[in-house]
Request: fold
Amino acid sequence: MLVRLLLMFVLAAWPASAAEWRAYANARFGYAIELPADFITANEAVNGDGILLRSQDGRAELRVFGANILDHDFATEVDSRRAIDANEGWWISYDKSAPAWASYSGTRGNRILYVRAVALCDSAAGYFSLTYLKAERKRYDLIVSHLVKTLSAPAHC
Reply:
């Protein structure tokens, strides 16, 4: 009986969108990531930078994009993006990085922002940025974890 209850709890807590993923590879910058299969494509950048997706209920937004690093290094690029988010009112409460990746997250009102960046070839960076409601944190923690694991640079970088 206890095993059955635990199994029911785990299945109820596991988001349906985390069970299925679709591969996305960006031809311009060479990064790859697995996207939640139930997110709907809202827009693709004309210049090939990336893609904007929304959850089916419209309450979460996922941006996946690449950017050229023009006048500085990867760490400074991420610092600049973090500063832009802070200036837009996001209170950054988590910030961790290494030479080839960086993550930060924060809150604004009833929403959470999570950003992940990876260093790419040819002085570029690949990102995902996910915003969602605080009330849905448990559901999106699993999605963020999978996105972090799958955002990657080409093997030859």
User: Anything to note?
Assistant: Residues 1-18 have pLDDT under 50 and may be disordered.
